[in-house]
Amino acid sequence: EVQLVQSGAEVKKPGESLKISCKGSGYSFTSYWIGWVRQMPGKGLEWMGIIYPGDSDTRYSPSFQGQVTISADKSISTAYLQWSSLKASDTAMYYCVRVLVTGSSYYFDYWGQGTLVTVSS
Amino acid sequence: EIVLTQSPGTLSLSPGERATLSCRASQSVSSSYLAWYQQKPGQAPRLLIYGASSRATGIPDRFSGSGSGTDFTLTISRLEPEDFAVYYCQQSGTFGQGTKVEIK
Fold this sequence. Notes:
The complex is a heterodimer. Chain A is built from no helices and 11 strands.
């Protein structure tokens, strides 16, 4: 059974750093792209970026380039999303997703349970 | 960058009725690249349809997808109580804004 298990909820202050995780199991972790999707409170879904754990090739949405860092440790089948300096506007639910690539497009066939990040002074 | 516009914003229907949700792209999209997701309150989204018309694993056959070019449709033939949720279309890094299907 394919599973993506994310780390728990976080409460942080503006300016703090944070790294959340997503552990994949039930499939070959290095053979599929992993992505991150943001959902701000009461809002829709936004694609942030994807990484191929096999070689760490990473692509970012222009909206998130330079704002976050996506990484992966294939030895423990875990992907990460990190911030160096959080802002209140980073408050959101963050989902990791397994990515299926079709031609020049892709979609998300498995989703983690989500990690709620709250940034407040 | 492609923009996906979903309509209506909210659909008020009764169980047993048919739901028709629209997703319009700002430029032509290959049918292979259009997906639909369902999100219930407090839950992660789940994949319903990929390639515009292929049901994902475990998705009931009352859900169907169709369309090509710039106009795509998700149809729920007979609404079950568990189908009241928000639905999103997606093409690569772009999501539509969502359609909420609520109980009338």
